[in-house]
Amino acid sequence: MKVLETGNGARAMKGGGLDPQRVSFDKIPIIDLEPMFTGDEAARQKLAQELRKACTEVGFLYIKNHHVPKDVIDVTFGVAEAYFAEPDDVKMENHVSKSKNNRGYAALLEENTDPTARGDLHESYDIALDVPADDPDVKAGKVLYGPNQWPAGKPEFRKALETYHAEMLTLSGRLLHAFALALDLEETYFDQLVGKPLATLRVLHYPPQFGEIDDRQIGIGAHSDYECFTILAQKEGISALQVLNAAGEWIAADPIPGCFVVNVGDQMARWTNDLFASTVHRAVNRSGKERYSIPFFFGPNYDALIEVLPSCIDEAHPAKYPPITSGEYVNGRFMATFAHYAAQSEANADTAT
Ligand SMILES: O=C(O)CCC(=O)C(=O)O
Ligand SMILES: [Fe+2]
C-alpha cells in the first residue's frame, strides 16, 4: 500500500492502475442547498445533518440549488478555453513568477502536487481576492494577499473571472453557515473570521492522456486541499476527478449537471479534529478530450486562528493539532509543495517593511 504524506498525516492508497472504481453516485452524496436560501429553521437543521454525515463519512459532496447562474459558469469555461488555446509566449506574459502573490499562469508540468510524482499535466491561471499593493497586510509580506495579474487585451477574461469569484464568495458565505450548523454552532459562528478571506479561483486545463500512462505523471497528483473547503465546477460530460475512499480505493466523482463538487480541506479537518475528512483526490484525463475545471479554494482571513473547536474535543478525542493562523498554515503547505512559491515568499519577506 502506497502512503501519501499530507500536512495532517499519512493516507494509504492501494495500487492497481489508474482506473477508478465505478460506484453509483449516491456514494458521494448530493445535497440540496436551497434551505440555506429560503428554508426555515427545521429545513436548515435537516440539511446540516446531511452535510455533517457527508463531511464525516466522505469529505466530498455535490451541491445542487446553489444559486450560481449557469451562464456565469458557462462564460467562465468559455474564456478559460480561449485563454489556454493562446500560444505559450502569450500565456507566459502573465506567468506566476511575474506576480509577488502567485497570481497568473502556470504551464504544463510546472506544478507537482504530489511531491513523489513527476509533475502535473495541467496548466492553470490563478486569481484571488484583489488586495492593492499598498494594503498593510500586503506590505507586511502576507504573500497570500495581493493584487491580481491580468492578460492584456482580454477584458472578457477578466470580467468573467471577477464575476465568478464574486459568486463564489457569496456561495462560500452560505456554505459556511451550513458548516457551522453541521457542527452544532451558531449559523454565523465563522462570519467574523472571513471578512478578508483566502479565496483563490483557478481555471485549469488538462490535455487528454492516451494509452499506457505513467502513474507518476497525471492531470493532478494525489493530494488533499489546504483551505477550509473547495467548490469545484467541472466541464460536463468529461470524467477525470477521483476520490480516495476509506478502503484506499479510487472512486469517480464525475460531473453532474447543475451541481458543484464541494470538498472539505485540511483547515476544516484541523478545526474539527478530523471529524470532517479532508479527503485525498486526483485527476486523470483519459477522456480523449481537453478537460477544463474551475476550483475555488476558500479559507478564513490570513490572521484567523485555526484551533480545534471545543465541540470536537472530549476525553477520548484530545486536540490533535496546535493552533495556527490560516495564512501561516496555507503558506507553509504551499512552500512545502511548490518551489516557486517558496522563492516568492522569501523574496516578499525580504522586501516587507
Ligand atoms: O480538476 C479537478 O477536478 C480537481 C482539481 C484539484 O483537485 C485542485 O486543483 O486542487
Ligand atoms: Fe484538490
UniProtKB/TrEMBL annotation:
Its EC number is 1.13.12.19, 1.14.20.7. Keywords: Ethylene biosynthesis, Iron, Metal-binding, Oxidoreductase. GO terms for molecular function: 2-oxoglutarate oxygenase/decarboxylase (ethylene-forming) activity; metal ion binding. It catalyses: L-arginine + 2-oxoglutarate + O2 = guanidine + L-glutamate 5-semialdehyde + succinate + CO2; 2-oxoglutarate + O2 + 2 H(+) = ethene + 3 CO2 + H2O. Pfam families: 2OG-FeII_Oxy (PF03171), DIOX_N (PF14226). Its cofactor is Fe(2+). The keyword Lyase does not apply. It comes from the Bacteria. Pathway: Alkene biosynthesis; ethylene biosynthesis via 2-oxoglutarate. One of its GO terms (biological process) is ethylene biosynthetic process. Residues 196-300 form the Fe2OG dioxygenase domain. Belongs to the iron/ascorbate-dependent oxidoreductase family. PANTHER family: 2-OXOGLUTARATE (2OG) AND FE(II)-DEPENDENT OXYGENASE SUPERFAMILY PROTEIN-RELATED. This is 2-oxoglutarate-dependent ethylene/succinate-forming enzyme. It comes from Mesorhizobium zhangyense.
